[in-house]
């Protein structure tokens, strides 16, 4: 019995050492264990579970009848059985956990295999491109070798022709000298023979020998003079070639020179193309390495793309409203939409707002201490209220600041008692809905991020464009051809590039399959929905305006040649503005400078005044101030002189 008790006691101790079920929580490190580690751990768990088998057999042995009288002998078997069941349940739970994790492990293996296949495909494509570039390089090298061989062959032919010409020239000189000597010898022999014949038979001629001798002497003198002239002519023009041969040689030389120049130009072109290809090859290698490192970084740090369809059951209105909200938006925009939906729900649940106090940093229309009632208007009511505020602002003389006007408008609309409540309510709504065009623009102007002239100028531009299209519509049908639409855009925005005009045409509804004769309903481009959202055409106009402003300020920064943290003086800023935009008039330049240095235009010193150099400002601060106002290019930038 003592042995049975000790065995049962050891079994219960071993059962207490078994791993307990984890319940709800699970360690994430277990998910990353590889296959070999899991296979190694399973036998250990099995060996742990097999340890209580022997004590269990002892605990289940029959007990003699005499032992049943002892009050303490029945307890150990019960404890042993309880420990066994706990160990069995733990092992079963672990097996279930392992089986549940098997699909996840298979999924991880599949994802790893897919990533490896993509990497291999990218590497195969890169190897294919590299092989094509190498083949093209070899072909170019062969072409260069052939051109060099042709050049060497032509040079050798020219050298050989020159050598033959020199040999022929020497041969002609030797023949000329030999002919001169031979002619002189022949003349001398003929003279001797004539003298001998005259001396032997003077009577044959029947004339006076003295006269004949004198005539012969004069004739010899003429012959000598003629021979000298002939020798002189031969000496002067002995190396002259015939014109026909000269022209033939000149033509051949000209053709060879043209071929040589053509080959030299081809070689230079091929050499430049080779250098360009090498640069492209190096840039391709750098891009490949960069993409590969980015791929590795993405594989290491990226998270799965969210399933936005899960939001259908959460957003008010169900799948249909979520489909309308999510149409044409990327993940970042969808996050804003989801935050707006969540924030609007929380905003509707609020009955009161806490006042922000009376500090100087608090806007004037929000200065209140205590609880403020939430009026809980609908989104449409807020948008209509903002539109009414803009209409009243455009109708007045704009003497007061925009925040003061906004609060006075609320007091006039809802009374002094409810004005602060409506101010807090509208402020919280426009701060929340960033995706709404009317609310976001009103919030930017109200908080001083934009000048109200930015909004007013853009509205005037849109109205002017609509007026131009209406004037071009002679039939007043609301239709224009694509050619008319393009012409109006170019005349209204003469500083926009062809690419920007094309973007506006595409935003207006033009497709690559469309022709210039297709009709466009231009009035639909300027319509707004019930929430004040404009059509893509007007949104593209606004987007291009913001891009042009940022580009203008970037050119201004580059023209100053200083860093953002450095100081810029008033004359330097004025010179940079006139340099990048020579069409600026003096009044516009003073307006920009007044905004950049936060000085009234009446206090600005005249150009050339010594006080100008004392007015300085940090460049980054000046650019941020210019970003607030309506700053734009007034004319084309003068092209830089060619070096």
TrEMBL record:
Domain of life: Eukaryota
UniProt feature, compositional bias: Polar residues: 1-15
Spans annotated as Disordered: 1-29
Keyword Coiled coil (UniProt): yes
GO cellular component: cytoplasm
Keywords: Coiled coil
Chain coiled-coil ranges: 130-164, 246-273
Signal sequence residues: none
Name under which the protein is recorded: Translin associated factor X interacting protein 1
């Amino acid at each position: 019995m003592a042995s049975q008790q000790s065995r049962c006691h050891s079994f219960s101790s071993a059962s207490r050492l078994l791993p307990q079920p984890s319940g709800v929580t699970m360690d994430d490190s277990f998910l990353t264990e590889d296959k070999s580690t899991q296979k190694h751990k399973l036998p250990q768990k099995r060996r742990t579970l097999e340890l209580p088998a022997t004590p269990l057999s002892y605990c289940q042995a029959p007990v003699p009848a005499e032992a049943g009288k002892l009050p303490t002998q029945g307890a150990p078997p019960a404890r042993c059985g309880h420990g066994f069941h706990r160990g069995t349940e733990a092992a079963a739970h672990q097996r279930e956990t392992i089986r549940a994790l098997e699909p996840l492990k298979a999924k991880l293996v599949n994802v790893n295999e897919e990533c490896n296949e993509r990497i291999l495909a990218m590497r195969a494509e890169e190897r294919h491109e590299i092989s094509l570039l190498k083949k093209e390089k070899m072909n170019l090298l062969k072409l260069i070798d052939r051109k060099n061989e042709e050049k060497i062959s032509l040079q050798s032919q020219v050298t050989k022709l020159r050598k033959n010409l020199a040999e022929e020239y020497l041969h002609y000189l030797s023949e000329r000298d030999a002919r001169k000597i031979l002619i002189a010898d022949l003349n001398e022999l003929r003279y001797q023979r004539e003298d001998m014949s005259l001396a032997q038979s003077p009577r044959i001629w029947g004339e006076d020998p003295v006269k004949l001798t004198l005539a012969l002497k004069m004739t010899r003198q003429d012959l000598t003079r003629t021979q000298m002239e002939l020798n002189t002519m031969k000496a002067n023009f002995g190396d002259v070639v015939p014109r026909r041969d000269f022209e033939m040689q000149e033509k051949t030389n000209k053709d060879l020179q043209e071929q040589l120049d053509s080959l030299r130009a081809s070689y230079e072109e091929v050499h430049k193309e080779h250098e360009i290809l090498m640069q492209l090859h190096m840039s391709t290698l750098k891009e490949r390495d960069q993409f590969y490192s980015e791929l590795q970084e993405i594989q290491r740090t990226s998270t799965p793309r969210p399933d936005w369809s899960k939001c259908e059951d959460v957003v008010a209105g169900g799948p249909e409203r979520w489909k309308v909200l999510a149409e044409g938006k990327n993940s970042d925009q969808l996050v804003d939409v989801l935050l707006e939906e969540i924030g609007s729900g929380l905003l509707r649940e609020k009955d009161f707002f806490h006042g922000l106090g009376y500090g100087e940093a608090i806007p004037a229309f929000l200065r209140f201490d205590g609880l403020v009632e939430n009026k809980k208007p609908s989104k449409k009511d807020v948008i209509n209220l903002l539109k009414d505020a803009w209409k009243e602002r455009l109708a007045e003389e704009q003497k007061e600041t925009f925040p003061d006007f906004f609060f006075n408008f609320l007091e006039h609309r809802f009374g002094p008692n409810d004005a602060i409540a409506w101010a807090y309510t509208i402020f919280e709504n426009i701060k929340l809905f960033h995706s709404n065009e009317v609310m976001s623009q009103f919030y930017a102007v109200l908080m001083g991020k934009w000048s109200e002239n930015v909004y007013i100028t853009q509205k005037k531009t849109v109205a002017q464009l609509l007026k131009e299209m209406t004037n071009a519509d002679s039939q007043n049908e609301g239709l224009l051809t694509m050619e008319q639409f393009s012409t109006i855009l170019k005349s209204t925005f003469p500083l926009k590039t062809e690419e920007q005009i094309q973007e506006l045409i595409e935003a207006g509804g033009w497709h690559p399959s469309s022709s210039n004769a297709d009709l466009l309903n231009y009035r639909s481009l300027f319509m707004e929905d019930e929430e004040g959202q404009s059509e893509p055409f007007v949104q593209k106009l606004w987007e291009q305006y913001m891009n042009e402003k940022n580009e203008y300020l970037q050119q201004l920064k580059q023209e100053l040649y200083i860093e953002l943290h450095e100081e810029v003086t008033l004359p330097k800023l004025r010179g940079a503005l006139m340099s990048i935009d020579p069409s600026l008039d003096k009044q516009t330049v003073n307006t920009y400078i007044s905004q950049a240095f936060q000085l009234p235009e009446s206090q600005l010193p005249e150009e050339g005044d010594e006080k100008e150099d004392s007015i300085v400002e940090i460049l980054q601060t000046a650019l941020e101030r210019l970003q607030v106002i309506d700053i734009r290019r007034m004319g084309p930038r003068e092209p830089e002189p060619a070096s």
